[in-house]
């Protein structure tokens, strides 16, 4: 069907409106902000660490098996989780100390295993091992994943930096194509309202403008948990999350 000038105008208006809505986060002064805190727990059967056989570069990577505890539980508290407020458009400034991401490939493992960085910023990979690595990163979108970059690092002490810009997902999976037992994660924040939970599962997100928000808890291998919260000026709101095993 041929579009009339009116339909074209409406289409353009919708495009402009959508683009404006998707504008980048705006840092402003927050007056009388509140906070959100709580705890992330795990109930049910703990699946235990996943075991990978080390079959390559054993003089550097070690011998036997590599255990990776994706679901790390301590006295009921679940760690390696990021709690965040979803689609916040403006508020406090980002934490400059967590702006960029960095991983060191050392002993054929990623250090750190999990980290937080900001969207549309640089991620650096260092190879501290005297063996070849190939860092391969993916945007995580539910059960799907899309390659972000895939770079060979054959030389010790080599370093590469790539910009990470996620469109649909909120996190990045990190793997090594040379060693299938190397795994890591980076949560890629689109606003500064996030918290990497402590070992006991506790978290706090502060300096939040008063209002109603969607709040989510992300974990690299478990299904995300969702909720809502209303933050009052100068007050704390409590939101707890429970992940469940089989």
Automatic annotation (TrEMBL):
It comes from the Bacteria. Residues 1-22 form the signal peptide. Transmembrane segments: none annotated. The keyword Glycoprotein does not apply. Pfam families: fn3_3 (PF14686). InterPro entries: Carb-bd-like_fold, RG-lyase_II. Keywords: Signal. Residues 193-237 form the Rhamnogalacturonan lyase domain. GO terms for molecular function: carbohydrate binding. This is Rhamnogalacturonan lyase domain-containing protein. The lineage of its organism: Bacteria, Pseudomonadati, Pseudomonadota, Gammaproteobacteria, Thiotrichales.
């Amino acid at each position: 069907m041929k579009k009339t000038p009116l339909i074209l105008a409406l289409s353009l208006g919708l495009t402009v409106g959508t683009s404006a809505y998707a504008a980048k986060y705006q840092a402003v002064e927050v007056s009388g902000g509140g906070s959100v805190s709580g705890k992330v727990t795990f109930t049910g059967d703990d699946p235990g660490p996943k075991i990978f056989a080390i079959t390559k570069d054993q003089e550097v990577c070690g011998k036997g098996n590599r255990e990776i505890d994706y679901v790390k539980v301590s006295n009921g508290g679940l760690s390696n989780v990021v709690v965040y407020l979803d689609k916040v458009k403006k508020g406090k400034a980002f934490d400059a100390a967590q702006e960029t991401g960095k991983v060191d490939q050392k002993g054929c493992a990623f250090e750190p295993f999990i980290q937080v960085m900001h969207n549309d910023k640089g991620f650096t990979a260092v190879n501290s091992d005297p063996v070849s690595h190939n860092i391969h990163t993916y945007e995580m979108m539910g059960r799907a994943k899309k390659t972000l970059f895939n770079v060979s690092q054959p030389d010790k002490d080599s370093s590469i930096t790539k910009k990470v810009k996620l469109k649909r997902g909120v996190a990045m999976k990190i793997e090594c194509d040379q060693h299938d037992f190397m795994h890591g994660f980076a949560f890629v924040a689109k606003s500064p309202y996030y918290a990497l939970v402590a070992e006991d599962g506790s978290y706090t997100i502060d300096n939040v403008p008063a209002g109603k928000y969607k709040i989510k808890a992300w974990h690299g291998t478990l299904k995300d948990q969702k909720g809502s919260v209303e933050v009052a000026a100068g007050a704390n709101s409590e939101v707890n999350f429970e992940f469940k095993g089989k």
